Amino acid sequence: MLILAIDTALDHCAAAVLDTDSAVMRAQETLPMKRGHAEALMPLVARVRQQSGIAFQELDRIVVTTGPGSFTGLRVGLSAARGIALAAHKPVVGVTTLSAYAAPVVSADGDAPVISAIDARHDHVYYQIVSGNGDELVAPKVAPIDDLLADARFAAPHLVGNAASMLAERWPAGATAPVAVDNQPGPDIAWVAWLGAAADPAHAPARPFYLRAPDVKPPAGAAPELAHTAASS
């Protein structure tokens, strides 16, 4: 299967082409940025596609991150993925940023629970907790950091996400310390691609995964699903 993966949900802009049959990443590129995703994404996708040697029509699936993350960034990635999928007559699937953060840790078959955490600002985080084998322990939610620390009653977790260092700095003194702290501006685009390849299109829609209302309002005329603010996948 040939996969084009796109991620603009957080503080980078990334794209990759994965060949799952040969387990080879044909091309990938990640640009750190807090703003400017709209201007950077399509030139980046064009470079990655050219480097991969794969035409859009040869792709089997488009994968895009659905959040939680920046409302503006998510809109850019989702719009691009849907546009490419429509033009190339290919299916498009979505994966959450929280699951993409956790994926490489879970794949290592460790015993420690994994806390994926994303800075939601105003002393809040988006987070999800899974076991070392990927079983969900705490469903995705948004909450004050102190609530997460109270919720994290699991010994020696592995912290990952752009809020991982923030959590480590405030980890309760009497609690067992995290086994690892992986602070990353965004998930590895390679794992976004692999998760998208494994996803069931019927259960992985390419629509925003919001855990609270966006901080900005969508422009007039935006697609209804892009203005949706319920916590649904």
Q: The CATH topology of the largest domain, please? A: Nucleotidyltransferase, domain 5
Distance between the termini: 24 Å
Unreliable spans: 223-233
Strand order in the sheet with the most strands:
3-2-1-4-5
Main sheet record: 5 strands, mixed
Gyration radius, in Å = 17 Å
The CATH H-level homologous superfamily of the largest domain: ATPase, nucleotide binding domain
- Percent helix among the residues? 25-40%
The helix/strand order is: EEEHEHEHEEEHEHEH
Task: Return the domain count.
Answer: 2
Dominant shape: globular
The overall average pLDDT, rounded, is: 90
Helices, by number, come to: 6
Query: What is the architecture of the largest domain at the second tier of CATH?
Result: 2-Layer Sandwich
Organism: Bradyrhizobium denitrificans
Protein name: tRNA (Adenosine(37)-N6)-threonylcarbamoyltransferase complex dimerization subunit type 1 TsaB
Domain Gcp-like: 34-149
InterPro entries: ATPase_NBD, Gcp-like_dom, T6A_TsaB
Structure description:
The protein is an alpha/beta fold and 233 residues long. It has helices spanning 37-52, 71-88, 97-107, 145-151, 164-169, 189-198; strands spanning 2-7, 12-19, 24-32, 61-65, 92-95, 114-121, 124-130, 136-144, 158-161, 180-183. The chain has two domains: 2-97 and 186-227, Nucleotidyltransferase, domain 5 (2-Layer Sandwich), CATH 3.30.420; 98-183, Nucleotidyltransferase, domain 5, CATH 3.30.420. The strands form two sheets. A five-stranded mixed beta sheet has the order 3-2-1-4-5, sandwiched between helices. The two termini are 24 Å apart. Helix 1 runs parallel beside helix 2 (71-88) and helix 3 crosses helix 6 (189-198).
